[in-house]
Amino acid sequence: MTDGLNEKRDALTGDVYQSILDGRTALGMELGSTRIKAVLVDEHQKPIASGSHDWENRYVDNIWTYTLEDIWEGVQDSFAKLAEDVKARYGVTLTTVGSIGISAMMHGYMAFDKAGEILVPFRTWRNTMTEEASEKLTELFQYHIPQRWSIAHLYQAILGKEAHVPEIDYLITLEGYVHWKLTGKKVLGIGDCAGMFPIDTDKKDFHERMIAQFDELTAGENLPWKLRDILPQVLTAGEEAGELTEEGAKLLDPTGALRPGIPLCPPEGDAGTGMVATNSVAKRTGNVSAGTSVFAMVVLEKELKKVHEELDLVTTPAGDLVAMVHCNNCTSDLNAWVDLFEEFSAAMGMKADRNQLFETLYNLALEGDPDCGGLLAYNYFSGEHITHFEEGRPMFVRLPDSRFNLANFMRVHLYTALGALRVGMDILFKEEGVKLDSLLGHGGLFKTKGVGQRIMAAAAGVPVTVMETAGEGGAWGAAILASYMRYRKDGGSASLDKYLADSVFADEEGVVMEPQEADERGFEVFMERYISGLPIERAAVECLPGRV
């Protein structure tokens, strides 16, 4: 029996070995907020090697940033670790791959001059110094422009008369910058282009009317450029986006082992690669990522009727319109309560396994009343723009006659983790009439089998699916986009959603959970209490000043 298993393992290793030698692989790399990850997949989109590098943003002169040295140190280290993994697993030096895809945090501001030198430190999506620009552009375009978008950063720099503005030759996001240095091509995937400036989804390009409006708005500044001149070329999934140059190969792999000439797909933002990694690019589908923060991406069938400051509009990597509901707070307060129970267990002389503690408390929540027994909580560690809070105060509230027990206590904290998200989803479903057939859930909230999934189904009112591969992340999504580009280059004609369904997720069943009627009714009652109680949260912010 053991010999048979060894033979099967050796055969699989041999197949992968040959795939690597033949260049039938794809490399995906994503530069996330705290980790840069590289994943190599075979021709079946199965991960076969990986490498990662931890990093942290810096707060310098009131700006959240990463230096260019930080970027390239991380990119090179994650690739080097992937190459080491390939060598250790398959005994081969990685000299080529079939295609490459780069992804990173969306939005932000990287401005370069004609010599290719960065003009000011990289301003990440996390910076919130663009409120004035955001409000003025939203009013001008009649299209919601969030503070983190590149155009908001650019206009704020213009309003602030920043000296570097006339020198701008190229404005780009993080993954577009990495791609540019690897290929020499000033291009960007449409999903992240939609996080720089509004997109015309019919033309699959930046919105011409709004481009003209911006140029007219800034005409009095006598700038030597027009907006279109400094933006990247918009590309959609499947298009070719250049090849790895000799200089790019040395940047990615300073050892010199990696050869130039490898084709790259359009670089995409983390939202786009997340949609790919969760098979959520078709219309009437969506995905929700629930961890420290929570956001839902819903692929729309048509434009929304009106502007909603609570909703961001971006696109899939194929260019279909997506509504994004993004909330700053999700599981942090929930985790803090679990920490407290762990501390109590230790004080009682009981060594609790942390995973078991989460599983026990989460499952106990399912035994609580559907409306949480009249309990109320807010998980606002920080502000929450959907409910119009600049700051937050975690809070638990109950009436004297509330059903105060552990099951309801845990249930209310699971409910409130999705409370702000539900406010945004109600705008989509109730005000805009958006139809959604399914949501795919991923992130820490779904780690305990069946619990977060059931609560999410109640909150959204649609079936929620959880798949094992959803945990592979955006680097895997970037690798899939790279494979899709090569598939189209070789004559394939399937759309991205069809390609994902037939070639990537065909054997992925996932676990589907339908919303339960009692849970839905209970969540509705909770939400009435949640909305009514917001003045309590407001009073806490005003009466309990934060620490200086």
TrEMBL record:
GO BP terms: carbohydrate metabolic process
Pfam families, sorted: FGGY_C (PF02782), FGGY_N (PF00370)
InterPro entries in the cross-refs: ATPase_NBD (IPR043129), FGGY_C (IPR018485), FGGY_Carb_Kinase (IPR050406), FGGY_N (IPR018484)
Protein's organism: Hungatella effluvii
GO MF: kinase activity
Residue ranges of domain Carbohydrate kinase FGGY N-terminal in the record: 26-252
Domain Carbohydrate kinase FGGY C-terminal stretches: 287-484
Ion transport found in the keyword field: no
Alphabetic keyword roster: Kinase, Transferase
Protein origin, superkingdom: Bacteria
Similarity remark: Belongs to the FGGY kinase family.
Protein name (Swiss-Prot/TrEMBL): Sugar (Pentulose or hexulose) kinase
Gene3D superfamilies: 3.30.420.40
